[in-house]
Amino acid sequence: MTIEQIDKFLSNNEYDRNPVKVSFKTREAFTGIFIKTADYDELKGKNFWRIVNQSNVQKYLETKNTSLARIFNGQEITKLTAVESIG
Q: Which of 5, 15, 81, 87 could make a disulfide contact with 34, Cβ separation 3.0–4.6 Å?
């Protein structure tokens, strides 16, 4: 997906609170939340996105520890789907 496609999806959803199912070209889909960090704009400009996997979301929400997130290349993302809840 392009930067614009991902950014449009995220701006239409409360991406830092609502889970998103992220589908990829070459790996299995997973559910998680996108997070905004100090380098968000720099990463976004390169089509990279920090996503916290569903297994770490609760811990992230409690601690705001950004090391719980992984950085993904937006070009590898094929589809984003809003999810009611994690679990």
A: 15
Mean pLDDT, range 53-59, rounded to an integer: 94
- Which residues are paired to 79 by β-bridges? 23
| Domain ranges within the chain, ordered by starting residue | 3-82
What is the SS3 assignment for 3? helix
CA-based Rg of the chain, rounded to a whole angstrom?
Answer: 12
3-state helix, strand, coil in the chain (%, to 5): 35, 30, 35
Is the domain covering 3-82 a CATH 1.10.760 domain? no
CB-based burial label for 85 (10 Å; 0-12, 13-18, 19+): exposed
